[in-house]
Amino acid sequence: MSEKTYTQQQLTEAFRASIEDRAKWFYLLLKYAKEENADTDKIAEKAILEFGKMKGLAIGKADNAKEFVEALSTGHAREAFEMNTIKAEEEESVIQFSYCALVEAWKKLGCSDEEIAHLCKLARYGDHGMVGVFDGLELDFNQLLSEGDSCCELVVRKKT
Prior knowledge:
This protein is of the alpha+beta class. The protein has a single domain, classed as Trafficking protein particle complex subunit 3 (Muramoyl-pentapeptide Carboxypeptidase, domain 2). About 55% of the residues lie in helices and about 15% in strands. The chain has six helices and four strands, in the order ααααββααββ. It has helices at about 10-35, 40-60, 65-70, 75-80, 100-110, 115-130, and strands at about 85-90, 90-95, 135-145, 150-160. A four-stranded antiparallel sheet has the order 1-2-4-3. Strand 3 (about 135-145) and strand 4 form a beta hairpin. Helix 1 packs across helix 5 (about 100-110), helix 2 (about 40-60) crosses helix 6 (about 115-130) and helix 5 runs antiparallel to helix 6 (about 115-130).
């Protein structure tokens, strides 16, 4: 059997497509849960926070902000989100994402700016869950693509 090779661009596009699929079912799940009068925000918060914790546990070890950002910015996600590490220090690290397949999928679905900002707020529970498994670390967002900024800027720092 011959092995097929892929370019980095093909891998990035495939990774983005899978993230866009996740964004679409997330949107539809919330849309129809809302029609059933469910508390969609509470459900999404719990589910996405737990998902983020699973992702954080999969990282393994990150004793400080630098180790977390280094772990986060490896693999296909680095290219798919166009990640750029701005600062990598033990006390505080900063990473910027110049592309978000979630936001792009919600735009393609015709979501309003307000809907996109709200969906992104819920999706960020995953990021908080991921960081939350590491005692002593906290996460802030200084900029958000979903709110019209040129990037998402994540700041991971040691808790004070």
